[in-house]
Specification:
With 323 residues, this protein is of the alpha/beta class. It has helices at residues 11-22, 38-43, 59-62, 83-103, 138-155, 176-185, 203-216, 232-243, 253-266, 278-282, 294-300, 307-322, and strands at 2-6, 26-31, 46-49, 67-70, 108-111, 160-164, 167-169, 192-193, 197-202, 222-224, 229-231, 250-251, 288-289. The chain has 12 helices and 13 strands. The chain is globular and about 55 Å long.
Length: 323
């Protein structure tokens, strides 16, 4: 089969590309700088210079494929300018789906996120849940807008499957969570929030679910492909036991909410980004980004590995890489 892939240089997209190539499929990927995508070229991925924000740059490589994986996404915390989020998450999604429709591509898989629901306040939501409140971050908001665009295309008959992962971890994760987890191997940790919870999934399982969705899911369906639910504290306890690093200090939600308010004032005069920004503190203050993956298990055979197993494999990879 021939597949077109966005986000191939990213964390999830790179693993999807690898798994597709291992299965013998042809993979075409649009990348901003092909010369910097040697790892993909070594896999046999056919690289095309382009950008999801530039619609016509994707037309040629998307023409004639059997399916499209739209995985590219923008994720930043606490930035003053969220324009790239609009360009990549919102307009990029519209561009990909418009081209998919125009070119008559048989099937597509779009990577949304549980973050479109922001804080679920402890509820394990399913695919029918609809969030109507104010989103906690620019990422949540722009991905929610993109999800609405995807829903509209589905309603109009586009053969698209929407996937909603939760927190994704694993080897080569360059996100702030990846850096935080690697800190355990160096005996370095930071204070962590109490009550905050995620559904943790290993990147290999998320990539597998993308391919399973392409092969098995009915067009027009949506699946939560999140992993098992654990609080941040529980995840860190497992990481502590696996690495021998002392558990981090914990912070109550009220303290983080207070810090969010303070940083909201401070960042008006000082450039503060990342987890220390007002937004960064807000999305950690006892929130729950959680969802029920039962439908994906039943329909797709999705079986995400336990967090302990996944973290152990991730730490082993990092140790071997370092050694």
């Amino acid at each position: 089969m021939k597949y077109f892939l966005t986000g191939a240089t990213g964390f999830v997209g790179g693993v999807v590309a690898r798994q597709l190539r291992e299965a013998g499929h042809e993979v075409r990927a649009v990348v901003r700088t092909p010369s910097k995508a040697k790892a993909l070229a070594d896999l046999g991925v056919i690289l095309h210079k382009g950008d999801v924000a530039e619609k016509e740059s994707m037309r040629a490589p998307m023409t004639g494929v059997d399916g499209v994986f739209h995985i590219a996404g923008w994720y930043k915390v606490g930035v003053r300018d969220a324009t790239p989020g609009e360009q990549v998450n919102v307009q990029g999604t519209r561009n990909v789906l418009e081209l998919m429709k125009a070119l008559g591509i048989p099937k597509g898989v779009y990577t949304s996120t549980l973050a479109v629901n922001s804080d679920t306040h402890g509820k394990m939501v399913d695919e029918n849940y609809r969030f109507t409140g104010q989103h906690l971050s620019a990422y949540d908001r722009t991905k929610a807008e993109a999800h609405h665009i995807a829903d509209k295309f589905v309603a109009e008959g586009l053969p698209l499957v929407i996937l909603q992962p939760g927190l994704i971890y694993g080897p080569e994760d360059t996100s702030q969570m990846g850096e935080f987890l690697r800190g355990f191997l160096h005996g370095k940790t930071q204070p962590i929030p109490q009550q905050t919870a995620y559904c943790w999934a290993h990147v290999d399982d998320i990539a597998w679910a993308h391919i399973a969705a392409m092969e098995k899911a009915a067009p027009g369906s949506t699946y939560i492909i999140a992993g098992p639910r654990h609080t941040f504290v529980e995840g860190c306890k497992i990481a502590s036991e696996l690495t021998g690093t002392k558990m981090p200090l914990t912070m109550p939600p009220g303290m983080l909410k207070m810090m969010s308010g303070i940083m909201g004032v401070v960042e008006k005069v000082l450039p503060i980004e990342g987890v220390y920004s007002s937004e960064g503190q807000r999305i950690l203050a006892g929130v729950t980004y959680i969802g029920d993956n039962g439908k994906a298990k039943r329909d797709l055979g999705y079986n995400p590995r336990p967090l302990r197993e996944g973290l152990a494999q991730t730490f082993d990879y990092e140790r071997k890489k370092k050694g």
